[in-house]
Design a protein that fits this description.
Strand content: under 5%
Number of strands: 2
Order of helices and strands: HEEHHHH
Helix content: 55-70%
Number of helices: 5
Largest sheet: 2 strands, antiparallel
Strand order of the largest sheet: 1-2
Number of domains: 2
Length: 117
């Protein structure tokens, strides 16, 4: 082993060093800060897949104030579609088609938005 790497007797000593300065035990790379050495974090967490799985479990709610406005706009578009369909003498088919497409897009956006809550 090169002289610049310390010896670790237990895994706890290795973790304490990872919080301060990390020296790679598996390669000949020089010492780095813990924030820069992403591979070392993967090894301590159980591999890249486990590291990503732990992050998804800690995800907080993504609710924002703008979500309320999205729901209100969707309701207004639906009301507008009903009003366009209720016109008696002559219907504006272009406006009806445009509103149906806009309502479909907003309903999909609302679904994705609400599933993130």
């Amino acid at each position: 082993m090169p002289e610049n790497r310390p010896e670790y007797n237990t895994e706890e000593q290795e973790k304490v060093v990872c919080d301060k300065v990390v020296t790679s035990l598996h390669s000949d790379l020089p010492a780095r800060r813990a924030a820069d050495n992403i591979y070392r974090r993967y090894e301590l967490k159980g591999g890249p897949t486990m590291y990503l799985a732990e992050q998804t479990g800690e995800a907080a709610s993504t609710f924002q104030t703008f979500d309320i406005f999205m729901l209100i706009f969707t309701i207004l578009i639906a009301i507008g579609l009903v009003r366009l369909l209720m016109q008696r003498p002559r219907k504006n088919y272009f406006a009806i088609g445009f509103t149906i497409i806009a309502l479909a897009i907003f309903l999909f956006a609302d679904y994705v938005m609400i599933s993130g809550w």
